[in-house]
């Protein structure tokens, strides 16, 4: 059955000095057989929804549709009837299965017209215009009335305003769509809504508490007028959204400050970051503030922790490097782990985890070192040490400790939970006074 969102269009309005401020409600439509078949994960819709939320907008529906013009047209017409803006991704390319513009032409009665500027842009970028132009000319045919979003890109995306509703068409390639969304779409929507000065948004990222417990702790805050709280499990974290609205910028700021203080007091150090921060970024900032270099010794995670750390720009300031010591031989040779420890306690043990962290710190000269060793599965487990058994070691301030964890799930999930828990262990020890 069709969702009835009509009463929610342009919701949350407040009047102030004859200026109407509103929260804009949107819908995202992702197009492509590669998405509906499961060959490609639809990361763009999640990225768009998160960025739109942080900009003060709300997404009430997200759809994934194959390259079928009739279904695309139906979804588009339905969205235009019930929300304030629509974002469509995919189906804008030059191949025969890129059918978004054809669907728009049919559904909205907007026949395709040749955009000479785009055509010239394509021609100027081709080494052999005569041989390739025919294949790429499709990119220059846009629905009647469409406005090109960027003059710099060949796959520029476009904006079509239909029945006073802005519809943004973005490329299916995630990096292209995300750049256009941040650089062009969000500023354009901000100009339409006029709402940012009255609404404030925050996204808190937490670890170590289940969703239901966070909900119980924050229930009193949910009862407050002009305050909205939401809970979203993301991978092995829980994200808490906070939205406040007021009749003036000052009131909205006051409401936000009060609500933020209550959330921080209630959840404490389970909050690791806000908005777009990642756990690796937070750890990196703490290491930088403490003028520390971190080293890592990984077994069961196979370099995942190092990968997450080095994905942060500027990580060379606080990350010395890591060793993937998968076999016992490498643990002995590169980390100087005693053979007797491995023989007596096994590679998956607190004793070995501590030795990995301490010996690596000594070998590379860092004051803090992290290690992980465990059984990620699906095989290798025993009754004494089942799959999911993980030891995390940490060397800091000339002391070394280990913690034992029992994770569940598939191999990748166990590795990701191990990496997250290990980084959070570093975060917490650096927060200690």
Automatic annotation (TrEMBL):
Name of the featured protein: Competence/damage-inducible protein cinA
CDD domains assigned to the protein according to its UniProt record, in alphabetical order: cinA
GO MF terms held by the record: nicotinamide-nucleotide amidase activity
PANTHER family per record: NICOTINAMIDE-NUCLEOTIDE AMIDOHYDROLASE PNCC, NMN AMIDOHYDROLASE-LIKE PROTEIN YFAY
Residue intervals of the MoaB/Mog domain: 27-191
Enzyme kind, highest EC tier: hydrolase
EC number assigned by the record: 3.5.1.42
InterPro entries linked: CinA, CinA-like_C, CinA_C, CinA_KH, Competence-induced_CinA, MoaB/Mog-like_dom_sf, MoaB/Mog_dom
Alphabetical UniProt keywords: Hydrolase
Pfam families, sorted: CinA (PF02464), CinA_KH (PF18146), MoCF_biosynth (PF00994)
């Amino acid at each position: 059955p069709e969702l009835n969102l009509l009463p929610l269009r342009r919701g949350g309005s407040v009047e102030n000095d004859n200026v109407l401020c509103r929260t804009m409600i949107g819908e995202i439509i992702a197009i492509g057989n590669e998405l509906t078949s499961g060959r490609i994960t639809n990361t763009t819709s999640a990225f768009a929804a998160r960025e739109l939320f942080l900009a003060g907008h709300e997404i009430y529906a997200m759809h994934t549709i194959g390259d079928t013009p009739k279904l695309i047209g139906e979804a588009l017409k339905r969205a235009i009837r019930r929300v304030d803006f629509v974002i469509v991704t995919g189906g804008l390319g030059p191949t025969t299965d890129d059918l978004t513009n054809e669907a728009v032409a049919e559904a909205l009665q907007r026949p395709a017209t040749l955009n000479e500027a785009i055509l010239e842009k394509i021609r100027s970028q081709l080494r052999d215009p005569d041989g390739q132009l025919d294949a790429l000319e499709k990119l220059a045919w846009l629905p009647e009335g469409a406005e090109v979003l960027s003059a710099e890109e060949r796959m520029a995306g476009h904006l079509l305003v239909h029945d006073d509703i802005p519809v943004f068409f973005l490329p299916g390639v995630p990096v292209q769509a995300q750049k256009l969304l941040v650089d062009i779409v969000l500023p354009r929507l901000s100009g339409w809504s006029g709402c940012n000065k009255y609404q404030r948004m925050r996204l808190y990222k937490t670890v170590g508490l289940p969703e239901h417990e966070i909900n119980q702790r924050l229930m009193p805050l949910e009862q407050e007028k002009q305050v909205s709280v939401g809970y979203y499990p993301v991978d092995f974290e829980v994200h808490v959204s906070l939205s406040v609205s007021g009749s003036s910028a000052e009131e909205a700021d006051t409401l936000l400050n009060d609500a933020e203080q209550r959330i921080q007091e209630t959840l404490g150090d389970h909050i690791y970051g806000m908005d777009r921060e990642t756990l690796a970024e937070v750890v990196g900032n703490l290491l930088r503030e403490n003028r520390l270099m971190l080293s890592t010794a990984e077994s069961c995670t196979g370099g995942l922790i190092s990968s997450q750390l080095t994905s942060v720009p500027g990580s060379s300031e606080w990350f010395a490097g890591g060793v993937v010591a998968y076999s016992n031989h490498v643990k002995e040779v590169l980390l100087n782990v005693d053979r007797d420890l491995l023989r007596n306690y096994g590679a998956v043990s607190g004793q070995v985890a501590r030795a990995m962290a301490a010996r690596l710190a000594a070998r590379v000269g860092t004051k803090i070192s992290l290690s992980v060793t465990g059984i990620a599965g699906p095989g290798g487990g025993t009754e004494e040490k089942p799959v999911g058994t993980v030891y995390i070691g940490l060397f800091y301030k000339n002391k070394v400790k280990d913690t034992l964890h029992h994770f569940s799930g598939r191999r990748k999930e166990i590795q990701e939970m191990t990496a997250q828990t290990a980084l959070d262990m570093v975060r917490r020890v650096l927060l200690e006074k």
